[in-house]
Amino acid sequence: DTSVCPEANTSDGTPVARETFDGLVYLPSIDRMFSFDGPKAPCGSGSGRTWMLDFAVSPPVWRAMDPVNGYNPAAVTDTGAGSVTGAICAYDPNTDSVFCSWGNDYGLLQYTYSNNTWKLLAPIRSDIVPGASTAVVDPVRRLLIFMGNAADGVTFKVNAIDISGADPTYAVKDWTPQLAGCSGMSGIWPGVAYDPVLDKIVEWPGSGSTVYLFDPDTKTCVAQTY
Do 134 and 148 meet the contact criterion of CB atoms below 8 Å apart? Predict the structure, then answer.
């Protein structure tokens, strides 16, 4: 029955199945998996809710974090305003928080577990942040970097946002015109991670045996094939 769209299963209180997109992030400081938003089964509507999978107990337990403090994403989805298509999130070890680009036009959010609080940092539309990208935090340069294809699924882009607090507008910077040697990185929701040993971003476009090492300072990429 697609007209019924519960947030949790009535049998055990666990979250119903959903498309998580890039709204799953592991929080090492508390050994929990953070999950935010995603179209729910069977109706496909956005959630706006915050969940944690607690690994500190055996077996792991899902814990609902709503009601949250501060900005309330669930209130936005409850009004039916707009079309929320999921989130692109990444963990920041400097602030022990999660940054998310959420939905079509709901902006840049920050979630802090210690006080269970969301903040709306800036309105950022999905046509600015690449729609089929993956986010990663560069903790040294304190940047939130989005790598992957735009909403058209074809055009490869790299965007960056300063999350150090120096830019209160959290402006999106398009690095795409400055890239060199990165054409092979084109992919939909690629695998992206920061390597603290190399101090570079490692990207796998989703197929093949080649990964790319991206230098945020020079905007250059080096291919490594295995």
Answer: yes
